[in-house]
Batch of 2 targets.
Target 1
Amino acid sequence: MPPSDLSDDARLVMSADKAAVSRALNLVEDRRSDAQARVTGLLAALKDAPKAAAGHRVGLTGPPGVGKSTLTSALARAVRRRDRSVGVVAVDPSSIRSGGSLLGDRARMSFDPSDAGLFVRSLATAGEVGGLAYAANSAVRVLAAAYDIVVIETTGVGQSEIDIVHVADTVVLVIQPGSGDVLQFLKAGIMEIPDILVVNKSDQDELAQRAIADLRGALRTAHAAGAGRGQDADWDTPIIATSATKGTGIDALIDALDAHRQHLNAMLPARRRQGEVQWTLDLFSRKHGEHGLATLGGVARLQARAKRDLAGGDTPLGLCEHLSREYVSALGKTP
Amino acid sequence: MAEDGKQERDRPWIMRTYSGHSTAAASNALYRTNLAKGQTGLSVAFDLPTQTGYDADDPLARGEVGKVGVPVSHIGDMRALFDGLPLDQMNTSMTINATAVWLLSLYVAVADEQGVDPSVLRGTTQNDIIKEYLSRGTHIFPPAPSMRLITDLITYTVDEVPKWNPINICSYHLQEAGATPTQELAYALVTAIGVLDAVKATGRVPESEFGKVVGRMSFFVNAGIRFVEELCKMRAFVELWDRVTRERYGVADPKQRRFRYGVQVNSLGLTEQQPENNVIRIVLEMLAVTLSKDARARAIQLPAWNEALGLPRPWDQQWSLRAQQILAYESDLLEYADLFKGSKVVEANTQRLVDSAWAEVQEVLKRGGAVEAVESGYIKQRLVESNAARLRAIENGDQVVVGVNKYMEGAPSPLTENLDDAILTVDPEVDARQREALGRWKLERDGAAVAKALAELQRVANTDENMMTASIAAAHAGVTTGEWANTLRQVWGEYRAPTGVAGATVKASGSGASAEVIDRLRARLGDLETRMGRRAKLLVGKPGLDGHSNGAEQIAIKARDVGFDVVYEGIRVSPEQIVASALEEGVHLIGLSILSGSHLALVPEVAERLRAAGLGDVPLVVGGIIPDADAERLRREGIAAVYTPKNFELDNIMSDLIDLVDRQHAAE
């Protein structure tokens, strides 16, 4: 495809043309080698989209069965009522045996099909270790260029939110009353403290109140043990009770999201940059492994290099290609 | 009783035919002929808009009006439905759930007009929302307000309509959704427990009166072709219900502990191939629920032999009624005491089912009960897994189905010589006429009275007062079904139930021929992914109001198991939504499932909207109960493939689907 098409496509994506957004998402999912250059070009063209800088990327994660899809649906509708547009990436696991997947999020969502300001894309993890789909990082960037708020929804406690921290500005952990494991993980510092905690299915007041009290306790323990996000010591993780089916607590969640976005304001570029550095290294090590990282001087050096180059205007995909070339030529020089 | 077990001839069960179509007037004429043929009760089939709370003029009702039952939009329709049929002499079963409170209100209001006191009314409202979430899909509201409507209806009838069966707990649809006999027993019982606990929690029924509520609980059961096991299942039901009512609810009166049930025998096992064989299946299945005097059905309705082909005609239904009459009046069955008391085989099998079902009851109760186990998806997932196993057994021949996977060769049947005449076709103008009539109704009624009645409904919905009184007043005021439901939707919201497909476990392909087929399909999809750059993505859509999702679910699971990325949207999605999803999800292929007979209205609309969205190239296939002539027409209009119950070999369907994606990729 000639470059002019690409910028046309990028323009259409930025105007939230659904067909163009869908095409762009198809492209970033394309694993054929001849698609890579176009993906790199597209993401570079979308990098400075006005929506992207001003927008908000929200990661929504939690154990299976806590009602994340229904919550995402309720959240998206409430955000639309506030006249902001929403793009959703819903990530579901692929079957290890068949490679296939059942992407069931839409079944729990009710939405207006004629609404131009809401877009939902389901992605399968396709065997990626770590929970996020191969294309999730890129997909978030496509949607961020088109919509005010991007929600990325993943399942899991433990592995996947390590990934999601690098994609999302705000990480929301969703649990339900009686999620004892999560409390233990938090207390033990096994999981990072999320930016917002949601107790969904809070229909039964007593249970929900107890769950909230337990979470407060767990957060205190975790803080006392020195866990949490080092760069963000002055954010107090709010705990919000919601009932996605009844629609209660959703406005409070949006307010909390806005407050966190506001709180991030000055540090957001640095935080997103950190995520991009991580993504670059992930991409590179996925291709070339430990040996690749070691050959180019090790993780710390590559992180510093990525930080500098990305600040200079390179994109994660572009930089990864440079690094790959350097690695390959370095390989040629060793016996 | 004499030595030979002879006794005074037992009273026969109530004989019904599940019927209703087109309009209230047409259905009324049908009821009159059915009664004249010796039917002893009525069983009203409502159309899907009525069941899901929409008026005929609602966009969602498109193509569905008068299709699978009769449209009843207001008291005028209910009046016409029972014109000339004195309600004090009828025994009327209504298959109605989410809108049960409303339809019973219309019935009570019409009785009132006929000068009939509610206390003499006899009949049944199905009123079981749990199995709607699990299988049948006509639910509207979330579980909490739905359970409230159920308890409102029960507490109202216990006082005001004491001969009414306020609820028919349905294990029927659980079997259709794949339940094993153990699961059928267990999930029906936990539903009954959930309902009784909810009635208790209202505090409206004094402790001393609670036995009356228990005594009015009735069940609606399925009987499949393994009729010895089914016979034991019915005996297990009797024993388990006695245990629950005695131990959990402390009911002393044995009459109030009696397991009272009606039956529709298995429609799911009826075949499209050699459909005349279905008559034999229907009769065998009827034996399972009639042979045991100690566990005999109180009401039976039989499907018609040609239900897998389309809507049955009056003659087809008559044939099924005659089968009941021959067994009840011609044979000597009703002259004997229980035939199986003391039979070692029957008793051992019954005990096995009692034990396994009781264990599963405890499992669900441990998970918080029926409502919780629906919301968490636990029960649905178990059903989806059982159904997948059942279909696999048919596909690989472990379960013989005569004429389908064995003994397929046969002489052409004179019964189906002219297939288009062998089913009933609903006049396509019904839709428009019902809309017009509804428009006139809205013009002619007292608008102020309607507004007042709706305001009262809304007020009551926000309290914990019984919804029946306000609903009966609304019925008299001329409120419509859609207005009643929409008022409550605004207060309570709507609910989308778990589909159970995402969590269903993938079976290892194992070994043997079928494993080889699966491995081959997986390899083809892997190869296709390499060539396309992305894994083939399939959208499974269920347009229209039909909630029978078992077929769509099984296709979705099978497609996942052979390696498709599958987007499944659940039931009741509009053509607009399907096209929006196809666009946003970037799918390579779309499959629609429609069982309500509205395929000619819905499929071309989806196709047209796809073209308008620039997705005209995406292959579209459809599955459902689709007569040959309709299938031909759909193919002419560009539908890539049409599947009917005849196509039970899912592997072949999967192979076709992969071909379609491959061909489309090659064309691009």
Target 2
Amino acid sequence: MIELKDNKYRICYDPETAIVICEGSLLLNGAPAYEPILQLLKSAAETHEPNGLTIDVRSLKFMNSSGINMLTKFVMYVSDIKKLTLTITMQAKKSIAWQEKLCINLQRLLPSLQIQLFEY
Amino acid sequence: MSTEIFGDFNDEKQPECEEYLSIRFSPSRLPLKKRWENNGLSADFISEYFKIFYVSRQEENGDILNDILLENLQNSVKYVANELLENAMKFQAPIIYPTAARIFLSLYNDKLVFYIKHSITAQQAESFEIFIKKVLENDPQALYMEAMRESAREENAHRSGIGLLSMICDYNAKLGWKFESIDGVPLVTVTTMVTLENNN
């Protein structure tokens, strides 16, 4: 289990299940502050190729545009830069409008991205 | 003094405004990193303020409160307030010019209007103006996708515009700007106006 956290957020990656769980509020200051999370996602994707990696944002309450930018960089890394052949699945809550929009925007950049929307 | 207006911009004093909240930030010698946390705290405060106003109005009208809708509205308020504050902190005139930044939220029956006013250098204003014109003359959705693709290739792009474009594309916000400058002063005061319709 690899964990990145501070008092506002927690990113937890379990190599056994190939799931990254994001919790709390991500309000970090620009790309440099998001770099450790981006590196964690990139290395997880490389580890789980050609299978799959799931990113669960259901417990993520808030994310600023630098966070969107970081996830954008991640999907572009998978689709365009490294051309990794694994399935990325995003798990989000149906009731949280921004989570659904985020998934749809990421899917535009990575058409193979799977979106799973949960009631809770 | 010269003034330039771009996009959907009206001046702050609108008589039909029901309530407003204003927060002013004095110039601080604290490094940006230390002040960063204040953005989220202020954005939370603004969204809580909005919640009280919204809930009491729903009660007055005898409407049933929709918790999911309220949560999404609060998130929109927090997102917009936080992005505006982050931009005002990132792009500001050097500390030798004692200018304050101010965020102002006007609450109406059918909409919310944010204003953020801060001073930037003439050079920053020039590149911001180029970005604004690009947003106004092109399809924001296409620009948003382009900005996402470009920022993935450029390391630490300083003004990707993703924050402002996400307000337009993901939150249906209307944006407008006022640039004010005084002859002989190397600063430009920028007021950004963001309108969120309540029915979003």
